[in-house]
Design brief:
This protein has one domain (4-138). The longest helix has 21 residues, at 75-95. The protein has helices spanning 4-13, 21-30, 35-44, 49-55, 60-65, 75-95, 98-105, 124-138. By secondary structure, it is an all-alpha fold. The protein has eight helices and no strands. 61% of the residues lie in helices and 0% in strands. It holds the Pfam family Xre_MbcA_ParS_C.
């Protein structure tokens, strides 16, 4: 049996390096997205079930129900799941580690109106905005 951390890295390796609509749509309609994808987010970040369920606009109970065999995500949850995993991959690339990216997500930032970037991850637009900031950082803007 594959350990959780190893499984998370395998899931992450399947994600594009940047948010790209055509790649996200392809994954959305060609992959069977199950709990291992959600579990990868839980393994790659130190965020609680409460925070993660907030990102998906679902209750903690619903998040935990997805663990059950045979459960399937709604399309909007699948889309956010893919976007978040791609964002984590991108952020890890920019910061060099999951821990450093996780810390950045939790730190108030000027470019986010002194809010933590993680507070923007509950919408597709917010995920894209955080991703755009990461891209700007790759080119020397913002820390």
């Amino acid at each position: 049996m594959i350990k959780t951390a190893e499984a998370a890295f395998l899931v992450l390796s399947e994600m594009p390096g940047q948010i790209n609509d055509s790649e996200i749509l392809d994954l959305l309609y060609t992959r069977e997205l199950d709990w291992k994808y959600m579990d990868a987010i839980k393994s790659l970040t130190a965020f609680s079930d409460e925070t993660i369920s907030d990102w998906f606009n679902i209750s903690v109970k619903t998040l935990r129900e997805y663990r059950k065999p045979g459960s399937s995500f709604k399309n909007n949850v699948k889309e956010q799941l893919l976007l978040l995993l791609t964002l984590i991959k991108h952020g890890t690339s920019v910061f060099g580690s999951h821990t450093a990216f996780d810390n950045w997500l939790r730190t108030p930032n000027f470019f986010f109106d002194q809010k933590v970037p993680a507070s923007f991850l509950n919408t597709v637009t917010g995920i894209r905005f955080v991703n755009d900031r990461l891209t700007a950082m790759e080119y020397g803007d913002n820390v």
